[in-house]
Target: Alpha-hydroxy-acid oxidizing protein
Amino acid sequence: MSSILTIADLKDLARRRVPKMFFDYADSGAWTESTYRANEEDFQKIKFRQRVLVDMSNRSLESTMIGEKVAMPVALAPTGLTGMQHADGEMLAAQAAEEFGVPFTLSTMSICSIEDVASVTKKPFWFQLYVLRDKDFVLSLIDRAKAAKCSALVLTLDLQILGQRHKDVRNGLSAPPKMTLANIADIAMRPRWWMGMAGTKRRTFRNIVGHAKGVGDVASLGSWTTEQFDPQLSWKDVAWIKERWGGKLILKGILDKEDALMAAKTGADAIVVSNHGGRQLDGASSSIGVLEEIADAVGDQIEVHMDGGIRSGQDVLKALCLGAKGTYIGRPFLYGLGAMGKEGVTMALEIIRKEMDITLALCGKRLVTDMGKDQLRR
Ligand SMILES: Cc1cc2nc3c(=O)[nH]c(=O)nc-3n(C[C@H](O)[C@H](O)[C@H](O)COP(=O)(O)O)c2cc1C
Model:
């Protein structure tokens, strides 16, 4: 579709095609959404240096993240309820990422299970773990990710309790949606969405339902997380999780230099500088705002990744210039998925790739791995 040129175009289309409850779930931040907005806005303040008359031929966006080759250093972030943006959403997004050559991260709170995604992909994907009170269940999740040959465990540190997103409360977010009159009216206007949903059996949290003890139904994310997420999670837990997992470990949700220094001591392979897309601590700094300080402090000890607010290939390059070795996108791929399924995820990645490539050239560079602080105007 030639009318889709930007991530914002995909967002507009997703808004029309995805039921309000799930579109809002993606397009929301905690409380006043100030951190959600800052994540995007702070990228705009960073300026490139334009360079001319340098050889721009043979450009490459290839890089590595935790030692894995990537077509560009942009992974798909773990996002809950992705299978509610589009039927079988996690399976489709994982396939799109695999074909494109970037990592896909499956959330603990996904609709499609670890096994569902493994059944439709050939290359290893990454699994994101939330630590729950039920440690037997946590161990079984780790073991299932191992059995599915996931090549990295992404341990999320910034959601021991759930930040409040007003839209979710007002919309009565649940998966599947409750059949109230308002929901029926809203869903009726989105035929692509409900026809897809009618054709799949994957409509609830399949990593959990039927796997966690005594859990036959997890409709409400809010109440389940309140009961199940472990508020006592500590740095000591990172050690046993690392030990049990035995593979590459990424610690996600670091926004403070002190925490980054602690994370570097755990022996993990990477940290993700992240505020959960502005969905947890409203009033916290934007991710891009703290990236440089954190990368300067620990970049020689641990690989630094970042996410939050990336809406273009230019944003990716800015993050790389400020010290990130890799980045993740959450909403950009969700909008693509909601708009056009797998094709939309590929389109989101293509848009970002093209923007990166042209920007790289106009900055006078041929290799994405050469982007550094000296490419920024300060
Ligand atoms: C709808 C949605 C659901 C999310 N669910 C999870 C999750 O289950 N686990 C997790 O670690 N992070 C989750 N996140 C945070 C993302 O992994 C990532 O940090 C964030 O989306 C990055 O910001 P961006 O959306 O601006 O790219 C979620 C984000 C969104 C938008």
In short: The first strand starts at residue 47 and ends at 48. The mean pLDDT is 95. Residues 25-26, 39, 77-80, 107, 109, 128, 156, 252, 274, 276-277, 279, 307-310, 329-331, 334 surround flavin mononucleotide (CB under 6 Å). The first helix runs from residue 7 to 17.
